[in-house]
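Ticket #4471: complex job returned nothing on first submit. Input attached below:
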Amino acid sequence: MKTIKIASGQGFWGDWLEAPVRQVRLGSIDYLMLDYLAEVTMSILSKQKKRNPDYGYARDFVDLIREILPDIVTKNIRVLANAGGVNPRACANAILAEAKKQGLADKIRVAIVEGDDLVNRIDELLDAGEALKNIDTGEPISRIRDSIESSNAYIGCEELVKALDAGADIIVCGRVADAALALAPMVHEFGWSETDWDKRAAGIIAGHVIECGAQASGGNCSLDWKSIPDLANIGFPIVEMRSDGVFWVCKHDATGGRIDVPTVTEQLIYEIGDPENYIVPDVIADFTSITLVQDGENRVRIEGARGKPHTDFYKVSTSYLDGYTAFGTMVYSWPEAAEKARAAADIVLERLRQLSLPLDRIHTEIVGVDACHGTLSGPASEELSEAMLRVAVHSQDRAAVQRFTREIAPLVLSGPPSATGYAGGKRQVQEVMAYWPSLVPRSAVKTSFEILETS
Amino acid sequence: MKRIQLIDIAHGRSGDKGNKANIGIIAKAPEYFPLLVKHVTADRVKAHFTEFCHGAVERFELPNLMALNFLLHETLDGGGTVSLRTDAQGKTLCAALLRMYIPLTI
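Support reply: We reran it on our side without changes. The output follows.
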């Protein structure tokens, strides 16, 4: 039976830049998939596109292609990435320009996938009777209509498969569901039918395992983390998918990290809800149906995946401006580090109270004592060597947040002793992007692909 | 009654889904899984995270992975980009759950 190798190159925008380069150079792979988009990414890219219509995509991806283009041409590796953000066309054009510079423009075909971006279609959808209600709160989207920055449907693998069928070597898309980047090559290579739900579920589960990069190969692993070898040279995961839906998770030889049942299982249960109904555009996958077996060193076999028909909806993620935030920090040393940090927090809170700023949320925490686990952390040790006060605020009023940023530094002369570490530059006021999850009927979203011509 | 801390019999990972936190825990050996099923109930997890979790706790079983998955609603101070906390995405909440003690008997 035929098997293909799909390698993960990025788990998020900002992930290790060396990882995809090593994936194409340290061993043989057929496909490279890269996930660049988190929810927050779309609003950032949307802002960039507003400032410059040629922006709005992950420019890291173009830098990567510049570096690996000769490798992928020589080795015939095809690349799928959601680096297109809110401007796949501009991203693809930048790649074509790079290929031209390297004299390789006639060697690669670059495709884009479009249709996921709904930001200019909101009113049309509302007019057509789609309320785009928040699936958590039930509120209609009209409440935030004027604050919307971006709006994208999570689409499936369909257009990517068509692009691969048409001969695309590099596919640049926007808000495609992460795991669909891995499913597309499988459907293309094996011809899995649109209703072969079990195989599609296998492909999505495989995609879920590798979409967060090294989190499946020993990174962020809470079991015996100290025993995991050479995290500095961690090998990102690779899926070997067989045409019958059985697959292996592995990595290149001579790389660090570990692939075993515990490391893969930690990733399987990451960011899922109901495991029997993992809903993506291409299928509903059942994570309780699979079995994992160690099948050689750094090699785990997964089989038995079951799936059900997909829903009639796409999930839509809409970002909107929701006020402003800032935070400030101050470090206190032994003795009584935690006590000093708490006293300093009380001073800031009292001074803010006297200012009567229209702040709707104020949060104080002591890093080193309770920032992560709250009161579950238990009492701080009196011998604690140092503690960092962190105060954060939120307001719809930018000026109020700006005023808050002046309230931390004065602690160094007017609060508890042995205060330091405040010179981290002027604290910046940040816009807050909130997210509005909703559903839209699939029929309302028109997706397409296009192979771009070299000019 | 003899008790054991979850860190000694389980490992796992946590993350965010909007304002919901997902915490998955996995038994370190098959004999520990029934202990997790019996004692790490949705109610106990809700009580454990009383300071963070302002909504419901759902529990799902994955016996094939010797794992339990918890979905904690209204737990991330508004969600990853809105939260004012250091751990805005709930990345350390799995470790916080592994602080829990449970009886060592079924």
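Chain B touches chain A at residues 11-20, 22, 24, 26, 28, 48, 51-52, 58, 60-65, 67, 69, 71, 77-82, 84-87, 92, 94-96, 98-99 (CB under 8 Å). Closing as resolved unless it happens again.
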